[in-house]
Amino acid sequence: MAPRKPGRHFFANPGPTNIPDSVIAAMSRNSMDFMEADFLAVFDAARAGLQRLLFTQGEVFFYASTGHGAWEATMVNLFSPGDQVLMIGGGFFSSQWAALSRKFGLAVEVLEVDWRTGVDLDRLKARLAADRGAEIKAVCAVHNETSTSVALPLPEIRAVIDAARHPALFLVDTISSLGCFEFRMADWGIDAVVGGSQKGLMLPAGLAFTAAGPRALAAHAQAKTPRFYFDWTAMLERRFRGFTGTVPITPFFGMVEALRLIEQEGIPAVWARHHRLAAATRAAVTAWGRSNRGPELYCRDPSRYSDSVTTILLPEGINADSLRALLLERFNVSTGGGLGTLSGKIFRIGHMGDLNEAMLLGTLGTVEMALKLAGIPHAPGGVAAAMESLTQSA
Ligand code: PLP
């Protein structure tokens, strides 16, 4: 038997994230008939709360799935085989979204970018301007690329699409930004949004959704890709507007409580808290990096720093997964690893969801110890820098 690990498991992953006690309690319940009026009220409250968090009055379609299901649902409901979409590249998740879309016969063009800075808006502008026949049916963007910690400026992307007078739909993956930093579906002219439960929403994985505005619903009416479980038309015709099959009641009870917590704190206050914790994390990494060959922030553009996750690049030749293993085995601290081509090169500290200063400092302090124990070159003082940042912003 593995030895007992005393104390709390420190969970600093970029999703899933920590689940507040009251959300766990709200989900701890027996089955009930999902057609009952009592549950319908919960379902409606979850949808209405999500619309407030998304800043939309659009339709919300829910799926018993993770984010991958919501990607799939969105693409099969909006397009027909052969349709062309432009995916803004930049990391593991945009690559996955592109690969998934290709499986359904879409002609996906990836606008390649430097992963450490994200999309070049001039190149996007040029690509849209060159599409005189408006062949591109949608521009797809991952708001927060969780693999790289680069966050995209959605209003600026919207402005580029508008300046090109391009009719493409604007689709956004908000899986690791919603409930973490500013996101406004209607004001930013976003036609469809893909979301999931297990990050800023502080719920277990397993409930995902798409919010669709009027232009997306109009595109849906023309879309011919086969679909059944995910079919929005069928969902709209059901009494359960927005779900297919047996509704899993538990995550909806959890979602209502999670949204209540977010609104009690205040949506802008939640964004501000994420910003404070993220800035402190970046201050720590920057301090560690003040050595000859130290760790560094993977994202190179400060205007695009993510407030929900920090991706940390280790010096060449050092295996980030060994550091993560040390953190987990020796100190019971779980961090995120590198995905795809970044595997072994980076590690990620998630600072999204139900998190406070003390929890973050616990993680950063342990990382600083582990850097030392692993003999990874770094300058001391990361935790002190994080504390200074948190003191300044308190
Ligand atoms: N999009 C982003 C930005 C993500 O971070 C993730 C998962 O971490 C996904 C999509 C895929 O979601 P899931 O793992 O829930 O299927």
Structural class: alpha/beta
Order of helices and strands: EHHEHEHEHEEEHEEEHHHHEEHEEHH
Give the percentage of residues in beta strands: 15-25%
Largest sheet: 7 strands, mixed
Low-confidence stretches: none
List the total number of helices: 13
User: What separation lies between the terminal Cα atoms?
Assistant: 44 Å
Classify the helix fraction into a percent range. Answer: 40-55%
Which small molecules are bound? Answer: pyridoxal-5'-phosphate
Sheet with most strands: strand arrangement = 2-10-9-8-5-3-4
Radius of gyration: 21 Å
Beta-strand segment tally? 14
**Coarse morphology:** globular
Mean pLDDT metric: 97
Topology record:
Layout: E1 10-12, H1 21-27, H2 37-54, E2 59-63, H3 67-78, E3 84-88, H4 92-103, E4 107-111, H5 121-130, E5 136-142, E6 144-145, E7 150-151, H6 154-163, E8 169-173, E9 192-196, E10 208-212, H7 214-222, H8 232-237, H9 249-265, H10 267-288, E11 296-297, E12 309-313, H11 320-331, E13 333-337, E14 346-350, H12 357-373, H13 382-393
Parallel strand pairs: 1-13, 3-4, 3-5, 5-8, 8-9
Antiparallel strand pairs: 2-10, 6-7, 9-10, 11-12, 12-14, 13-14
The structure holds pyridoxal-5'-phosphate.
